[in-house]
Amino acid sequence: MPVIDTLSADLKEALKARNEIKLSTLRLIKASLKNKEIEKMASLTHDEIVAVLSTMAKQRRESIEQYTAAGRLELSSREEQELSIIQSYLPKQLAPEELDAVIRTAIEESGATSPNDMGKVMKALMPKVKGVSDGKAVNQRVRDLLQ
């Protein structure tokens, strides 16, 4: 079932169940997808939907960090709930071991030997992990493995 159809069905369920956080998050997802569709002036492909959802997840992660640092745990908790809802519509994320294997392969393919070669590795790696791993985590892991 396409993501859009799943979203619509889950929105109806959340409405019936009076699940306010899920309902507001699903409405936000649908609005973001609709805005992107209007901006593009065409229907979104699966990859574009994943990109929008990934951006939303990244925003939630950054908000969680900031709220936690500021001691606003109630806001951080809500963002974590929204993040888990958004992630349920994203493809399954790579496990750390799987990510390391993909990174090591990219390092070998690009011939990287030092942190100065990070750009080459990231260029080869990002198309492979786009949508299935957080870019910030990938960047940090590549940096660690090159040192």
Key phrases:
Arc Repressor Mutant, subunit A, mainly alpha, Hypothetical Protein Yqey, Chain: A, domain1, 147 residues
Detailed description of the structure:
There is one protein chain. By secondary structure, the protein is mostly helical. The protein folds into 2 domains: 3-87, Hypothetical Protein Yqey, Chain: A, domain1 (Orthogonal Bundle), CATH 1.10.1510; 96-146, Arc Repressor Mutant, subunit A, CATH 1.10.10.410. It has helices at 3-17, 20-40, 46-69, 73-87, 96-110, 118-129, 135-146. The protein is globular, with a radius of gyration of 18 Å. The mean pLDDT is 88.
- The helix-and-strand class reads mainly alpha
Q: Tell me the radius of gyration.
A: 18 Å
Number of strands: 0
The CATH superfamily label of the largest domain reads: Uncharacterised protein YqeY/AIM41, N-terminal domain
Summarize the main sheet.
Answer: none
Order of helices and strands: HHHHHHH
Topology, please?
Blueprint: H1 3-17, H2 20-40, H3 46-69, H4 73-87, H5 96-110, H6 118-129, H7 135-146
Helix pairs in contact: 1-2, 2-3, 2-4, 3-4, 5-6, 5-7, 6-7
At a glance:
The protein is built from 7 helices and no strands. The protein is mainly α and 147 residues long. The longest helix is centred in the middle third of the chain and has 24 residues, at 46-69.
